[in-house]
Structures are given as C-alpha cells and as structure tokens.
Specification:
six-stranded mixed sheet, about 65% helix, about 10% strand
Length: about 1200
C-alpha cells in the first residue's frame, strides 16, 4: 500500500469571482481539522466546489452546465457581459514546509487554464502533479460531496466493483484487457476455421481416392448394360410391329360398325326434327291463345274499376234514399204533430177566453156582497183616499217594481224555454255524432283490413316478381356459364375420345389408390405444367414416366404390380418415393439467361391443397427423377447453343424437339405425342364436364317462367282491386269526417249559446229575487202607514186592522185579480205559441225530400242499368276466356304428345350417340395406340441411335426373333429385362465414377500441405495473443485484489471504531465478499455491515444512520488504501444522531489531530487533513478551527471568517 512519508496539507484558498464569492477573497488558514459552518444558502457548498474546481473536477459535478456558470454574476445582465473571468488558487504546504500553488482559471472564452506556481501547464501535467501528491481526480479520493454517503450506501455489487477498480487503478487496464480479449476470440475463431479447412481437405482427398478406384468398375458395367439393352430393344421392336398390325385390323372393323350407327342416328334426328316443327306449330297456337286471354284480361281489368265504382255508387244512392225516406217519415210525423199542436193551442185559447169572461162575471157579483153602512163606507172611502194620497208615492214605486218584476219574469221564462230547446238540440247532435262515429269506425276498420290485405298482396306480388326475376337471372347466368364451359371444352378439345386402354388405366389407378394407402396417383394427376405452352415439352422430357404411378415405398409398388397381374390389367411404371435415387438439381442451370429454364421449374405440384407438406417434399423427388436436369427453351437455335456448344445439356423446345448431350435431335410433333400432351388437361376437362352437368340439372330444377308470369298477373289484379276499394273508402271516410266536423262546429255553437244564456238566466233570477225583497219592503211600509190611518176606523168596524177587513172582505176580489192576471198571461203565451206554429212551414221540407227521393230513384235505375250491362260484358269476356283456355289446353296436350315422342327419339338418338361415341372412342383409342406404337417405335430407334446400339435392318429378321407371346409372358420378360438393367444401372449409379479423380487427387495432396502450414501459423498466433491476454488479466487481477485485500482487512477495524461505545466495547462487524474470485473485476462485491446487537440484514434494510456509518466506514477504508493528504467532507453527518456524530468526529480527530497525520497506523494507514462542512455543534466543536461562511447582503456575495479553536481546547 502506498503511503506518504511527509504528507502536506491545504494552507489557504485564494479565489476571485467564483460562484457566490465576489471579487478577490482569501479563505484560511486551514488547520489539520477544520470545520466549515454557516447558515443554509450562505455558500458553504460553493467553498467546497471551489476546492473541487481547482483540483480538476468537471463543471457538471459542480452544479453547473458549463464553466461560465461558475463565474459570479449579480444578475442576468452581468451574466451576459463578455470578458468575465474567475480563478481559484489553492496554496498547498508540503511536508517540508514549502508551498506549492495550484491555480485554475476560467478564461473569457469559457475554457480552463491550469498553472502550477504561476506557470501555465497542460491538464496532463497538472493531473500528474496532483497524482504524485496522492490526489486522484478521477477516483475523487479526497472528496465526498453532499449526498455521496447515501449513494455509497445504496450502491449495488457491480457499482462497488466499478468504484474499487477506479481506486485500485485496474480500471486503466480495462480497455487493453477488453481489446486483448477480443483479439483472443478472433484468433481462436480463425484457428478453428483453419482446422475445419484442413479437415475438409483431408476428407476430400480420401473421397477422390475412392472415386479413382471406382472409375474402372463403372466402365466395365457400362459395356454389360449396352449389350443387354440391344437385346431388349430388339425384343420390344418386334412386339410393337405385331401390335400395330393387330390394331389396324381392329380399326377397320369398328369403322364399318360406326357407319351403320351414324345412319341410324341420322334417321332419329330427322324424325325428331319433324316432331319439333309440329310442336313449334302447337306452341305458336298456344302463344296466340294466351295473348288473346291476356288481352281480354287486360280489358277486363280496365273495366273492373268502373264496375266497382258503379257498385259503390248503387250502394251510396240506396243508402241516401233510405236515409231520405227516414227523414221524410220524420218530417211527416212532425207535420202531423204540428197540426195537432195548432188544434190543441186553439182549443186552449178558447178555454182561456171563457175562463176570463166567467171570472169577470164573478167579479161583478162579488162587489155587491160587500156589507157596510153608508156612513162607514163613506168614511172608509175617505180614509182610503187619504191613505192613498199618503202612500201614493210608495204605491207608484211598488207599481213600477211590479211592472219590472212582471217583465223580468216573462223574460226569465223565455230564456228558460230557449235553454230547454238548445239542450234538446245538443242531445240530437250528440246522437247524430254517435251514428257518424260508428259509421266512421266501420269504414276505418274496413280500410285497415283492406290495407293489410293490400300489404300482403303487394308482398306476394313482390315475392312473385323477385322469384320471376331471380329465376330469369339465374337462367341467364346458368346459360352464360354453360356457354363459357362449352367454349372451354371446345378449346381443350374435350370432344376427343378417351381410349379404352386409358380408361382401364385410370380405373386401375383409382382402384390401387383405394386399396393401398401408399399409392398417391399418376404423375399426370399429381403435377402439371405451369402454362399450357409447356405441355408438349414436359411430355417429351418425362417420356415413359408421364404415366408412372407414384407410391410411398418399394413394398407398395410390389403389391400394386401383384394386383395388376392378378386382374390382368395393363402394366404400369411405379416410382417408390423412399427408395428412388435422384441427382440434385444443378443450381447454375437456373441462371443461364435467355428463355432457358429447368423443366423442373415449369412443373406445378402438388395440385391438391389438402396434401401434407411432407408429401410435397417427397413428390419433388419423383418429379426430379422423371425430368432430371433437362432444360426447356422457346426456340430451336437457343436449344442448339445450349446443347451443343461449350458444356452440353439435354434440352427440349416448347415444340417438342429434343436435343441430347450426345448430339442427336428428335424433332416434330407426332400424333401420339401431341395426344399424350393433351392428357395434362384431363383433370380440368373432367371438372368442367361435372360443372356442365351440375348447371344443366339446376336449369331443369328452375320453376316454369310462364307459370310464374301467370301468378304474378293474378297478384297484380288483386292489388289493383284492393287499391280501388281503399280509394273509395278514403273518399267516404273524408265525407264522414267533414260531416263530423260540421256537427262538431254546430255543437260548439249550441254550447256557446247555452253558455251565453245561462249567465243571463242566473242574472234574471237574482234580479227577480232582489226585486221581490224590495217589493215586500214597500208593502210593509205601505201597510204600516195604512194601519196607522185606519186605526180608529178599524176599531169602529170591530177589526184588528183594515187589512184584516180587506183580507176577509176583499180576498175574493184579490184572488179574482190574480186569476185574471194568470189567465191573461196564459192567453198571451198561447197566442204567441199559436202564431209561431202557424208561421212554421212544414210542407216545404217534405216536398223537397220527396223530390230528392224521386231524383235519386231515377239515378239509381240509370246506374243499375249500367251495372247490369257491365256485368253482362264481363260474363261474356269470361266465357270467351274459358273457351280460349280450353283451346290452350288442347294445344298443350298435343304439344306434350310431341314432347313425349321427341323424348323417345332423343333417348334413342342419345343411345345411338353413345354407341357412336363409344365406337369413335374405341377407334380413336386404337388409332392413338397405333400412333403411340409408331411413336414408341420411333423413340426406340432414336434411343438406339442415341445410345449407339445397332439393331437388325431387316423387319423379317426382327419378327423372326420374337415368338407369339401373350401379355403375361411379355410382362414377365419385360420385368426380367428391367430387373437385369435396373440391377446394372443401380450398380453403375452406386459407383458414381469420376474419371478425372487422379489429377484431382494429386492437387488435393498439395493443397493439404498448404493448409497444414496455415493451421500451424494460426495456432502460434493464437498462443501469443493468449499469453498477452493472460498477462494483462493477471496484472489487472493483482491491482484489483491488492486494493480489495487492503480495504477488506481495514473496513471491519474502522467500522468497529465508528460503532463501539462503553455499552458495546467491541462495536459492530463489517466485511466485503467477492461474488467471483477468479474474475473479481467482472462481477460484484457484496458489502455487509452489522451494527452492535443487530442480526445480519441486507444494506437496504438498515436505518438511515446505520447506512451512513457503514458508508463512512467504507469511504475511510478506501481512503486508507490510496490516501490523499486531505479529506473534504460535505455534511456527512446529516443522517446521524448526536452519539454517532460524536463517534465520527472522534474518528476524524484521531486521524487528523495531535500529530496523527505524521504517524502511520498499525494497519498501515496514515492520517490526513480533514475539512468538514457541518451544521451540528457536537461535530464542529471537535475541530481545531472554524471557517464561518455568511452572506454579505450589501455586496450580495458570500464572505468568510476563520476562528482558531486550539487556544480554547480543554486540557
């Protein structure tokens, strides 16, 4: 561990315009243990920033984005001024007492300038000088910022490792270590590549050696194969010639049968044509009749509204006549009642006159009955005159009131009668309203019912129209689709007839697929050319493999061959996917340019989407086996260039011309080959035929369009009738509503009149009542005056008062007077009523109604006559239509008879066509077979020529070689030949010869030597780089472990010093653990601290004070490894209580005061100068000096005061 023999210290600090310190200020001197104190915001941390700044710490760590932010500025305007400068000078006192000045200046341009003792130096020289004094700027071993303690306590293992690397110096080796590690990996990779290259060359040399040994064996087998092929080709040629002769004879026989069948078909077609013409005549007659029926129907539909209108008019007039007759009866009844009323009134008037005369006579008799003496009578009259004079005014008033009362009573009676009449009228209007409402409801219900029926009828009509339209659309669509399919079938020449042999082959393959799961189908079913233009080219390229059956394995193929033999079916070629050996596709053939392509690339497979992906890959082998690396191009010139110039290839043109590597060319389009090429479309044609049958069946299933038209017409008629009914109902509804509106208005008028008369009636009643009271009061006053005047007279005649006398003696006169008045009133009323009844004209309405009924009767007769005429015309039209329908039925029956005959003829014609088709197919099949045999013969000769095999030129000699063999014997011989040839081919293919193997073998031997030398060089380079890497790794490991061992051994002692007390003299425990001891710098360091009496916990679970003590222990341990001469701490005691503050202060004092700086500890550590910022008196009272920082409000800057405490230290 490095140590300082004579550590120095910071003596003072000189600064100018740095942060909150304005102008030039000198701070110090600093003692061995100096505490910086002051209030918050005074500038304590800025003082610490000044020391950090002069010692080279970056501005970002000093709470400034750039250096200019560290220059003092009073306000923003001063901050914008140019040329502002600042500097900090640290005066460092060496151990021998000499001074060393470190100055860092912020220039006007915003850069840094470094000086040592006034001399400008570079940052590297400045940093080296600081490093020589034990001040590590990068590791910041002299400085603990505010908050660093908390960050140290919360560091994870990897961050602790990074901190230790900075302290130990192993971080300086990190870049070289990583570079060497990368070089080592590259060298190892290169060595592995060279080794693989060497291994490949050795293997290739061994392979070439084996190929050389197989070359001679291959040539020997080729000669044996050629001899066997010559014998095979001769035997095949003789069989082909025999088959051709046999087929030709069969074609001639079937041609004769075909002519007979064609003659029969022609007869059937002539008869069918005649019947078709006859049916066309019947259909024409049917169409004419249907047109007439339609015309009559339209005429009838036009007349139908008029008939309905006449019916409605008849109903309306009859209803009107009925109501008018009821009204007439009512009026006549009213007239009779009127006459009776007049007679009754006349009788009553006579009776009232008689009563008045009788009353007058009785009055005259009553006057004579009054018995008074003459003197008394004179006195009575005198007093009466006197009383009359005295009460004249009151009597006049009473008389006036009586007249008014009488007039008001009469008026009241009249108003009462009017009210009774209006009430009766109101009841009559209400009755009429009820009748009209009932009629309106009936009409509304009928309207709703007809509307609903109309909606249903319209829906029905719409359904018929939609169905008719859909049927027509579908019919047209199906017809168009049928036309397209027929055009496609014509394009594919679908009328070509499948040969009987091909049909048997197809059936045989289907049976094999059904019986054996491993059978996938024929090549023509499993794949096809991507475009039609390649059909012939692919057919030529595939040759005999075009009809080959693809099976899963060899066992399945053998089972299929056994089945074909047992059922005497034509032989087939099988391609077993698992055992077939194919040569890989040569990729460079895909980049030849021009129109040249691999035949393999123009074949599409598989055709069925639902096949497994695994089979897709297996089928590829079968396709490659069938076509190999054959090329296809569009022109013959391009094919010649590809096949015969430079490296030779097997090429086929789109026209079917085949050019081989050996130089032979097979050209032209033979009938057989062209027919075979069309078989690629067999599946498509079959699908098209199925579609055609399906569409024809759908057309037959469509409903009759004529029947749909008839139903649509009937629904249309129903809709028209309902619409007319609804129209008439709406008119009637409108009339009823108008009448109801008038009744409503009249009712309102009656009610208004009643409302107007009722207040008048009430007013008259109240006036009469009040006036009656006034009259009674006047009578009372008059009676009082009369009683006073008649008092003496009443006593003389012996009555209580004169009224008693008058009441007793004159009661009869008064009653008579009242009777006269009553009779007079009654007579006036009777006269008034009689006059009113005589004025009423009852005859005029009756005459008017009679005239109206008469005119309505005439109108009804006219309309009924028109209705009868319309009905008669309708019946005549219906009869005519029925006759036409019967005629249509007759024509239809004849047409159906013709249809039956035509169907019979059609069946016969179809049967004949089938026979003709079968004969044609058989002929075509045999002709195709003949062409195929010719093609096979030609192919055989071409193959012999291509493979340079000479056959006998004389056909007789060839035929003599072959015997009359049956199909089974032929197949057996063919199988024997094939087995022998396959055996030889298989053996040849297994040899895989390479005739140039000897030259290639020698070249590979030389190449092997070069590769071995290259491998040795790579191994040497790898070893050199590995040695460098291991050396650098060991160097880094030693530096790191040196620091770790020192810090790990010291941390427990320091932690014990910081945590021990009188109650816990041993203190706590702290230790460091490496996560990986082999590569410690690549992994983490676990720091564990256990305070006294506390069990083990993670650092995160300790309290804030416990974390701070643990962090300080780690900081002091790190500082003891690379001690700087001074240690600056910023408020490290913030989270500590007073007890722990005292312990930390005591520890710092033990390291800084009383000569501790000059002495070395037992653990090898040295003392240091301590400069601490603290706000706790229990901390800074242990210091030797205080630097007080305060805010100068006048200058708006920070100022300092230094106070020496050594003078006051207690002894």
């Amino acid at each position: 561990m490095p140590s300082l023999l004579s550590p120095g210290k910071i003596l003072r600090l000189e600064l100018e315009n740095f942060k909150s310190y304005k102008g030039a200020q000198t701070i110090g001197p600093f003692f061995d243990f100096t505490a910086i104190i002051g209030p918050n915001g005074a500038g304590k941390s800025n003082l610490m920033d000044a020391i950090s700044f002069v010692l080279g710490v970056r501005s970002v760590q000093l709470r400034g984005a750039q250096l200019k932010d560290l220059i003092y500025a009073f306000d923003d305007r001063e901050k914008e001024q140019k040329g502002r400068r600042a500097f900090v000078r640290l005066v460092y006192q060496m151990g021998n007492g000499s001074e060393l000045q470190f100055t860092r200046t912020i220039t006007g341009a915003g850069g840094s300038e470094y000086r040592i003792d006034g001399k400008v130096v570079t940052w590297d020289d400045y940093n080296a000088k600081l490093k020589s004094l034990g001040i590590l700027v990068k590791a910041r071993n002299f400085l603990v910022f505010q908050g660093d303690v908390e960050s140290i306590a919360s560091k994870n293992p990897k961050e602790l490792t990074a901190l230790l690397e900075q302290i130990s110096g192993s971080d300086d080796l990190k870049k070289d270590y990583e570079d060497l590690e990368e070089q080592k990996a590259r060298a190892e990779e290169n060595s592995a590549l060279v080794y693989q290259k060497k291994r490949t060359v050795v293997m290739e040399r061994k392979q070439k050696k084996e190929q050389k040994e197989e070359a001679e064996k291959h040539l020997r087998l080729q000669d044996q194969l050629k001899s066997l092929k010559k014998e095979h080709f001769s035997w095949q040629l003789s069989n082909i010639m025999k088959d051709m002769k046999k087929m030709t004879d069969e074609v001639e026989a079937e041609n004769r049968k075909l002519q007979v069948a064609l003659k029969e078909q022609e007869d059937f077609e002539l008869k069918a044509s005649a019947k078709k013409k006859e049916q066309a005549g019947y259909l024409k007659e049917m169409l004419l009749c249907e047109k007439k029926i339609t015309k009559k129907k339209i005429e009838q539909d036009k007349k139908q509204p008029e008939l309905l209108k006449l019916k409605e008019e008849v109903s309306r007039i009859r209803a009107k006549i009925k109501s008018s007759k009821k009204e007439l009866e009512k009026k006549e009844d009213e007239k009779r009642k009127h006459e009776k009323e007049k007679s009754k009134l006349n009788s009553l008037l006579i009776e009232v006159n008689g009563e008045i005369r009788q009353l007058t006579e009785q009055g005259q008799d009553g006057v004579g009955k009054l018995q008074l003496a003459d003197s008394q009578l004179k006195e009575y009259h005198r007093i009466k005159e006197d009383a009359g004079t005295k009460t004249a005014k009151l009597r006049d008033e009473k008389e006036v009131l009586d007249r008014q009362q009488h007039a008001d009573v009469e008026a009241q009676k009249n108003v009462e009668e009017n009210l009774q009449q209006l009430s009766s009228r109101e009841e009559g209007l209400a009755s009429q309203d009820e009748q009209m409402q009932a009629r309106l409801k009936k009409v509304t219900d009928a309207h709703a019912k007809h509307t609903e029926e109309l909606s249903r009828a319209k829906k029905k009509l719409s359904d018929f129209q939609d169905k008719h339209r859909q049927s027509r659309t579908k019919f047209d669509s199906l017809k168009a689709k049928l036309g397209e399919i027929e055009a496609q079938l014509r394009e594919y020449k679908a009328d070509k007839n499948e040969s009987e042999r091909d049909a048997r082959l197809s059936e045989a393959v289907e049976s094999l697929k059904r019986l054996f799961p491993g059978v996938h189908g024929r090549m023509t079913d499993l794949c096809r050319p991507t475009q039609n233009k390649f059909n012939l080219a692919v057919t030529v390229a595939m040759g005999k493999f075009m009809d080959a059956v693809v099976v899963e394995d060899e066992h399945t193929g053998k089972e299929c061959i056994k089945y074909l033999k047992e059922h005497r079916l034509p032989p087939q070629t099988f391609i077993p996917l698992q055992s077939v050996r194919v040569k890989p596709v040569i990729e460079k053939l895909r980049t030849l340019g021009g129109t040249a392509k691999l035949i393999f690339d123009v074949i599409q497979y598989p055709l069925q989407i639902n096949w497994a992906v695994a089979f897709h890959g297996s089928l590829e082998k079968a396709v490659i086996y069938a076509v190999g690396n054959t090329l296809v191009c569009e022109s013959l010139e391009e094919a010649k260039i590809l096949s015969w110039s430079g490296e030779r290839y097997k090429v086929v043109t789109v026209d079917g011309i085949l050019l081989t590597k050996s130089g032979t060319m097979t050209g032209g389009i033979s009938g057989g080959m062209e027919a075979r090429s069309q078989r690629w479309d067999d599946k498509t044609i079959e699908a098209l035929k199925k579609k055609k049958d399906k569409f024809e069946k759908e057309m037959e299933e469509l409903s009759s369009i004529r029947q749909l038209q008839r139903k649509e017409s009937e629904a249309s008629e129903e809709v028209s009738g309902l619409e007319r009914k609804i129209q008439y109902e709406e008119i009637e509804k409108k009339n009823i509503q108008e009448k109801l509106s008038k009744l409503k208005q009249e009712k309102l008028n009656v009610k208004e009149e009643i409302r107007r008369l009722e207040p008048e009636f009430q007013k008259l009643r109240s006036v009469i009542k009040k006036r009656s009271e006034d009259i009674k009061k006047l009578e009372k006053r008059i009676n009082e005056i009369v009683d006073r005047i008649y008092k003496d007279f009443s006593a003389s005649v012996g009555v209580k008062n004169i009224r008693e006398y008058e009441e007793n003696q004159l009661q009869a006169a008064q009653e008579m007077s009242e009777k006269r008045l009553s009779l007079s009133t009654k007579m006036s009323k009777l006269k008034y009523q009689l006059e009113y009844e005589q004025k009423r004209d009852m005859a005029a309405p009756i005459a008017k109604l009679g005239s109206s009924i008469q005119s309505l009767g005439k109108e009804l007769e006219t309309i009924q006559q028109k209705e009868a005429e319309a009905k008669e015309a309708k019946d005549q039209a219906e009869i005519l239509m029925n006759e036409l329908r019967e005629e249509v039925s007759g024509w239809k029956a004849k047409s159906d008879d013709c249809e039956k005959v035509m169907n019979e003829l059609k069946k016969k014609s179809t049967s004949a066509t089938g026979s003709i088709g079968k004969l044609k197919r058989q002929m075509n099949s045999k002709e195709t077979q003949i062409e195929q045999l010719k093609s096979r013969k030609q192919e055989l000769l071409e193959k012999c020529e291509l493979e340079q095999i000479k056959l006998p030129k004389d056909p007789m000699e060839i035929e003599a070689r072959s015997q009359d063999e049956g199909p089974s014997k032929r197949e057996k011989l063919e199988v024997e030949f094939k087995q022998k040839m396959d055996s030889l081919v298989s053996e040849i293919e297994r040899t895989a010869p390479n005739l140039k193997a000897l030259g290639q073998y020698e070249a590979l031997q030389e190449k092997e030597k070069e590769v071995i030398e290259e491998f040795e060089t790579a191994r040497r380079d790898e070893k050199v780089i590995a040695d460098k890497y291991n050396s650098k790794k060991q160097q880094r490991y030693e530096l790191f472990m040196q620091a770790f061992d020192h810090i790990s051994s010291n941390i427990d002692k320091i932690y014990k010093q910081l945590t021990k007390s009188s109650t816990h003299p041993l203190g706590g425990t702290a230790y460091l653990n490496l996560e990986n001891e082999d590569d410690p710098f690549l992994h983490g360091i676990k720091y564990t601290a256990m305070p006294p009496t506390k069990r083990f916990r993670d650092m995160e679970q300790l309290s804030g004070g416990e974390k701070t003590v643990a962090a300080l222990a780690l900081l002091f341990s790190i500082h003891s490894y690379r001690p700087s001469p001074f240690f600056i701490l910023d408020e490290v005691d913030a989270a500590l209580d007073n007890l722990n503050v005292a312990k930390v202060a005591g520890f710092i004092r033990s390291k800084s005061c009383d000569g501790a700086r000059a002495n070395q500890d037992s653990d090898g550590g040295c003392g240091f100068q301590s400069i601490v910022i603290s706000l706790k008196d229990s901390f800074y009272d242990k210091a030797e000096a205080l630097v007080g920082v305060y805010r100068d409000s006048e200058r708006s800057c920070s100022r300092t005061l230094t106070f020496d405490l050594t003078k006051y230290r207690e002894s």
